[in-house]
């Protein structure tokens, strides 16, 4: 079986129910979410904390569902592909649990003190871009499920906390972003 079809050679692709340009903002958001889940997968690969891995898989599965929801036109989307509010609640609970366990620095930090923390911070930065793209899409011609916006808003916080969990597990205090005064 060939992996490619050649149907997109002219710059178009399929949503489920409509052929669109590869520069369609829905495709852009799906791409940003694909980058996010791939970077979360990388973070999982280098993570030293088992819970980080378990929660990262949970998030990756949520992002897969969100991408599937966005891949359908409104007319064809089955209800099973709509992100439910419970997933937003769950990601908030994970973040709250980590916030109760990890003492956060009272300043901005420089990512990269540990491999796992740095990887989750890169995933966080891309997740924030995906969130911005979701907001733009929602304000334009293609309103989206408000639960997706809520989920993506919470996701960057969770990824930040997972990064700090990795740092803490390695006994590292993240460097301050601001250079100390001499």
CATH topology: Hypothetical Protein Ta1238, Chain: A
Query: Span from first to last CA?
Result: 64 Å
CATH homology superfamily name: Cobalamin adenosyltransferase-like
Strand order of the largest sheet: 1-2
Domain unit count: 1
What average pLDDT do the residues reach? 90
Structural class: mainly alpha
From the spread of the alpha carbons, the general shape counts as elongated
Helical content, roughly? 55-70%
* Tally of strands: 2
Q: For the CA atoms, what is the radius of gyration?
A: 18 Å
**Strand-residue proportion:** under 5%
What is the count of helical runs? 5
Proper CATH architecture: Up-down Bundle
Write the element-wise H/E pattern from the N-terminal end onward: EEHHHHH
CATH class: Mainly Alpha
What topology emerges from the helices and strands here?
Elements: E1 12-15, E2 18-21, H1 25-46, H2 50-71, H3 85-101, H4 115-139, H5 146-169
Antiparallel strand pairs: 1-2
Helix pairs in contact: 1-2, 1-4, 3-5, 4-5
